[in-house]
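User: Hi! I have a protein structure encoded as tokens and I'd like to know what sequence might fold into it. I'm fairly new to this, so please keep things simple.
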């Protein structure tokens, strides 16, 4: 059996809550549990030659990554999976700020309305929110 070369693509069909959404592709299109998808911003950005204005390439900006948790015939339910480390408070901060309780570092799961400083081109706040109809593309194994 030959390995599939093209990545699956689809769209956000509905948003279920702050960490879950449904996409418009499912078992019939080859979606499996644990597959990962990137939710992309509107349309790709064109990268143009500054002299000739020729389109050299396109660049997709990513809003959030999701993982398939449930596969149905025509749709897949996905949820965010990446976490961010929130640093705890130090003793010096507790004394200086009058904090009465130590806050240990903790991991928090990313939500669908991310502000990710690692993106090469920042999205505006409005663009960063995941919307019904946003494009999704399968991510290859990380």
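Assistant: Happy to help. Inverse folding works backwards from shape to sequence: for each of the 142 positions I chose a residue that suits the local structure. Here it is:
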């Amino acid at each position: 059996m030959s390995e599939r070369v093209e990545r699956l693509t689809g769209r956000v069909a509905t948003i279920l809550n702050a960490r879950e959404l449904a996409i418009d592709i499912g078992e019939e299109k080859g979606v499996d549990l644990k597959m990962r998808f990137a939710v992309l911003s509107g349309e790709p950005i064109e990268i143009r030659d500054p002299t000739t204005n020729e389109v050299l390439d396109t660049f997709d900006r990513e809003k959030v990554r999701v993982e398939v948790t449930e596969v149905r015939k025509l749709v897949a339910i996905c949820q965010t999976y990446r976490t961010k480390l929130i640093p705890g408070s130090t003793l010096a901060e507790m004394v200086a700020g009058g904090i009465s309780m130590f806050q240990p570092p903790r991991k928090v799961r990313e939500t669908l309305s991310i502000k990710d400083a690692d993106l090469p081109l920042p999205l505006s706040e409005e663009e960063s929110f995941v919307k019904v109809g946003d494009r999704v593309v399968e991510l290859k194994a990380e």
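A useful reference point when you look it over: Residues 114-120 have pLDDT under 50 and may be disordered. Feel free to ask if any position seems puzzling.
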